[in-house]
Amino acid sequence: MDDVSPLRPDPGLFGPRSVTWQMHGDPMMWIAGIRALYLQALHPRAVRGVTQNSDFRRDAWGRLMRTASFVGTITYGTTDAAEQAGARVRRIHRVIGATDPDTGERYGVDEPELLLWVHCAEVDSYLQVQRRSGFPLTDAQADRYVDEHRTGARLVGLDPDRVPATTAELAAYFDRVRPELAAGAEAADVDDFLRSPPVRPWLVPARALVWRRVAALAYQSLPPYAHELYGRPAPPPATVDRRLRATGAVLRAIPDRLRWQLPPGHILGAMARLGPGSRPAAYKLRGPAAILDGPGRAQR
User: Fold this and answer.
1) Which of 172, 173, 207, 221 stands 20 to 30 A from 124 (CA)?
2) Is 63 or 13 the better-scoring residue by pLDDT?
3) What is the pTM of this model?
4) DSSP per position, 123-164
5) ER-bound oxygenase mpaB/mpaB'/Rubber oxygenase catalytic domain location, by residue (predicted)?
């Protein structure tokens, strides 16, 4: 970007002083990502773009890892890497479409309203799971996070000026789109998969012991209207909050360096590029040091 000195390492689109940089290093992002899948599947036109263009049951893990890699690249990668990742997504979206089985209508998956739904479902899921699990965000920082992610919206082809910039605007968006949501056959397929994904025989015990609990917690953290649409009840919100906090405490007890060795490894790459002071950590959002620059301006 124009304000990056050639003598300094490129901080990327967000930079180490953004809310995004600190929050995306937290392990609860994996549960938040599963919640986003549950929520995204409730938009019939959007979920058809997935089910009609990929065999997500056979390549579900690959799809999850590609999504994680995209989020990691735009968060912790260089500006060029982030822009290239966005360009790849836009190229793919331009050439694929979906068909409404009831009307026969053919439409592109890059329709702005569909891209906006996917974007907002992700941002809301990341915020909801992180805040409810004890990640320290003030209301102002939550608004800042929503605003920062208009940069990510631009990468996938949206006009940032038409994307929610605060938590209040995000809530108003969900109120507006709520009548369009339904748990159709495609959503049921996604639900079935997330509850019991296909795994190799030797991983079946782990699926029963770990994955189903993780997926259940992600589902439970959805808003009440999502539970109504899926037709399955969830515990009271206070119970879900306790479970999220307990899970967060366990996952955050795992040493960062051990967690960050797992793919896709973008955080360690960013720290190697920018120095150890760029290490993402929740405590950096507390106190006077939490006065944050905007996206891409962290190294001024």
Assistant:
1) 207
2) 13
3) 0.90
4) HHHHHHHHHHTT----HHHHHHHHHHTHHHHHHTT--GGGS-
5) 21-253
